[in-house]
TrEMBL record:
Matching Gene3D superfamilies: PucR C-terminal helix-turn-helix domain
Chain ranges of the CdaR GGDEF-like domain: 124-242
PucR C-terminal helix-turn-helix domain mapped to chain residues: 292-348
Domain of life: Bacteria
InterPro entries linked to this entry: CdaR-like_regulators, CdaR_GGDEF, PucR_C-HTH_dom, PucR_C-HTH_sf
Protein name, entry field: Regulator
Species of origin: Streptomyces albireticuli
Family: Belongs to the CdaR family.
Length: 361
């Protein structure tokens, strides 16, 4: 079927409307306008181009105009021309309205289907076989391993946010039609990419960090299958949560580099017992446990270098040394002693993970 045949299907009754209107000088009736809108909707649903259809309307108008009987007087001819042109304007406007209405509905339906798929993908709430079938529609082949990167910024983002559009445009220019899924969830930017394409995730990380003006990005490990996407996504979220609790300020967090922390907290009761027994005596200090816990955190984070820890705390080295001596006196463990250091450092990590002493254990 030619383009002309396709256009003709959506011009059904148009010539007759023009002929009738030119004879009476009236405007199009409500039923005539609705018939144009219905044809516009049908054309959009079948994917016909609006430009070609408008050209078809104008060509038909020209044919009808040339076939109209003319009276001898110029004023009458002018009146007929204005009538036909007004009718053409009404008809084309109604047709375009129906076309655009169908397109908006299609866009909303597509967005709803995409959002439903993303929710099912990230939460694993759908049959995995069915999910894999739906994934191909959105450019993913879940038989492969995938990794998920999650970016959090100072404000929540959705799919229409300028930050999302900026990152999406940058990745499209760089990687074209690669099997990448970009979306947002719970106010964060999310990138799902094949696990063997680490360059995609690195570039997403760079763009997201810049676009969010210093936001933090976490990358989960690559895992196979639809369930692997969920696993990687949860690892990335866990890394961001861990960064918040531990005060980790690195712009990029890789779940693979943070595996020790889930291991430490897997037995929460055992960790809580360690924190209470090792650091609990610090509550007896003047000012409470917080200042001394902060001292231990800075000391261990600086590689047990007293001068660097003092600089981070804005203290003199002598003041820092005095605090370390107080910690030794209260806990019985010397932070400078390698035999005691591991227990103290593990307890400090546990305290940060469990939000002690703010939270009772």
């Amino acid at each position: 079927m030619t383009q002309q045949d396709i256009s003709g299907e959506y011009l059904d009754g148009y010539a007759e409307i023009l002929t009738r209107v030119s004879a009476t000088g009236r405007r199009l009736s409500r039923d005539e306008l609705e018939s144009r809108r219905a044809l516009g909707e049908r054309a959009a649903e079948r994917g016909c181009g609006l430009r070609q259809l408008v050209i078809g309307h104008l060509a038909t108008t020209r044919e009808v105009w040339s076939a109209l009987p003319t009276s001898g007087g110029a004023p009458g001819a002018r009146a007929t021309a204005e009538t036909v042109l007004a009718a053409t304007e009404q008809a084309v406007d109604a047709f375009a309205e129906g076309y655009e209405r169908a397109q908006r509905l299609a866009v909303r339906q597509e967005e709803a289907a995409r959002r439903e798929f993303i929710d099912d993908l990230l939460y694993g709430r759908s049959d995995l076989g069915r999910l894999a079938e739906r994934a191909e529609r959105f450019g993913l082949r879940l038989a492969r391993a995938h990794a998920v990167a999650v970016a959090a910024g100072p404000e929540p983002y959705d799919d229409t946010h300028p930050v999302m559009r900026r990152v999406e445009s940058a990745l499209h220019v760089r990687f074209g039609e690669r099997q990448i899924l970009l979306t947002t969830k719970d106010g964060r930017l999310i990138c799902v990419a094949p696990g063997d394409q680490d360059d995609v995730l690195r570039y997403f990380t760079k763009q997201a960090h810049t676009a969010t003006e210093g936001g933090q990005v976490a990358i989960g490990r690559a895992h196979p299958g639809a369930g692997g996407v969920v696993h990687s996504y949860e690892e990335a979220l866990g890394a961001l949560d861990l960064a918040g609790r531990m005060g980790l300020e690195a712009p990029v967090l890789r779940a693979a580099d943070l595996l020790v922390f889930p291991v430490l907290t897997r037995d929460r009761q055992a960790m809580a017992d360690l924190v209470r027994s090792t650091l609990g005596p610090l509550r007896q200090a003047r000012g409470g446990a917080e200042p001394l816990l902060e001292t231990l955190t800075a000391y261990f984070d600086s590689g047990c270098v007293a001068a660097e820890a003092a600089r981070r705390l804005c203290l003199s080295v002598r003041a820092l040394t005095y605090r370390l001596e107080r910690i030794h006196r209260y806990t019985g463990s010397d932070p400078a002693d390698p035999m005691h250091r591991y227990t103290l450092q593990t307890a400090v990590i546990g305290a940060r993970l469990l939000d002690w002493p703010a939270q009772e254990l």
